[in-house]
Amino acid sequence: MPEYLSRMRSEWFGNVRADILAGLVVALALIPEAIAFSIIAGVDPKIGLYASFSIAVLIAFVGGRPGMISAATAATAVLMVTLVRDHGLQYLLAATVLAGLLQIGAGFLKLGYVMRFVSKSVLTGFVNALAILIFMAQLPELTNVTWLTYVMVAGGLAIIYLFPRITKVIPSPLVCIVVLTALSIGLGLDVRTVGDMGELPSTLPVFLIPQIPLTLETLMIILPYSVAVAVVGLLESLMTATIVDELTDTKSDKNQECIGQGIANTATGFIGGMAGCAMIGQSIINVKSGGRGRLSTFVAGSLLLFLILVLGDLVSAIPMPALVAIMIMVSIGTFSWVSLKNLVTHPRSSSIVMVATVVTVVYTHNLAIGVLIGVLLSGIFFAWKISQIFRVTSALSEDGRQRTYTVEGQIFFASSEDFSNAFDFKEALEVVSIDVSNAHIWDISSVSALDMVILKFRREGAEVKLIGMNEASETIVDKLAIHDKPGALERLMGH
Fold it and tell me: Which element (helix H / strand E) includes 433?
């Protein structure tokens, strides 16, 4: 208990000033994004703003990765478009609650451990694709606009990159927002503002139960959307947690993050908010602004609500070029530039996985599909590599009546054909010994290949000895093999 309290104290109050300032920067950047994501989903801007407030505040308490920002996101918003169009807002809220419950279940089932199957190449591809998507999301604010917008964006980037040379006490993105807002208001500049994105809410969110019929039919309507949101939300959250782990050189609790995301989404659905997850862009803004603890996430959510309710008029006047400059900075900082150089030096298979992940995510705008393609390619390349680390050698006895085959490596579906082809069944032998001391039998394909080899030798009149099996291989062979059962050869040849 003392150790837990010490850890909580450190995670909440170990970096107070920097966490508060970073939280303020994130809160300001969250507002236009939350509005934009609401528009994507086809709902009122307040739905995304309430969600961003609720998710950020709750995840600060129950999440597994201090300093990571969670809120309404495009990744989950795009999944809800059809549901909102066909059935309305209340079904979206119900789907959000169910998605949260599924995520809680995933946490208790320890599914956070699946992140160990995501290779470094997939993670790099995921990061690069997100950097590209973040930049592409700024293009609408940079097309069909006046020259003044470009000047302000350039000025904002200059402040962001040059101000830290003067002092790092105040985050440069915050200085960018303050300076450009003051110039815009003071000089009456004609540029798009946050207020042009949509009307900010003026009241606190209230508890409500989604007004839907509690029937099996309703469950069948929302379940596919909830599953999709739960999977995509957890995938993006766990990968973002891994990235923040690397940026801060600290560890996170992936299973607790699953549970935390679920609690946040379930509660958000009951106050009229849409589903969300971790945001890599905002998390990087937070980390680069000095945010490290849970306090930064809590401040971001709390200040978001304070800003839109109390300082709504001032927030509405923030020029969009200031926020575009920040997001361009995030895009540049997120992209792994060294990965371009590594395309030449890294193994070709790793480079293919990374590029495939980037292309798929950018093309589909679906992080889950891109990561799935990357993981599948990683698995295929790994299986191919392991299948190559395999050989069978043999030695004939002095009297020419016995041959010992020595098998080395992994015998599984990708190497089982090479295993079968390594034996000479036409050689006249009395005894055949198959030594698998340095091999491992993994699956039904390898057991079937072993059956075929033993039975073919027996058909030619040879006695077959299988020696050196380890305990795991022996278990699967005893369970699945048929070479010692009556009529085995006829049955095997029949397949």
Answer: strand 431-441
As given in the structure block, the two tokens for residue 181 are: 């807002």
Q: How far is CA 414 from CA 97, 394, 410, in A?
A: 43, 22, 9
Rg (CA), the chain: 29
SS (H, E, C) 396-419: ECCCCCEEEEEEEEEECCCCHHHH
Cβ atoms of 448 and 416 within 8 Å: the answer is yes
Compute the distance between CA of residue 412 and CA of residue 257 in angstroms, rounded to an integer.
35
In sequence order, the β-bridge partners of residue 390 are: 409
Burial letters 226-258, b for 16+ CB under 10 A, else e: bebbbbbbbbbbbbbbbbbeebbeeebebbebb
Tens digit of each residue's pLDDT (9 = 90 or more) over 225-241: 999 899 888 888 988 89
The answer to whether 320 and 143 have CB atoms below 8 angstroms apart is no
* Stated pTM of the model: 0.74
**CA angle, residues 443, 448, 449, in degrees to nearest 5:** 100
Neighbouring-strand partners of residue 402: 431
Q: Dump pLDDT digits (tens) for 372-410.
A: 899 899 989 988 888 888 899 999 888 888 999 999 999
Sign of CA dihedral 288, 239, 371, 50: negative
The residue to which tokens 């395309």 are assigned? 343
Distance CA 195, CA 28 (A): 13
Task: Give the up-direction half-sphere exposure of residue 18: CA atoms within 13 A in the CB hemisphere.
Answer: 17
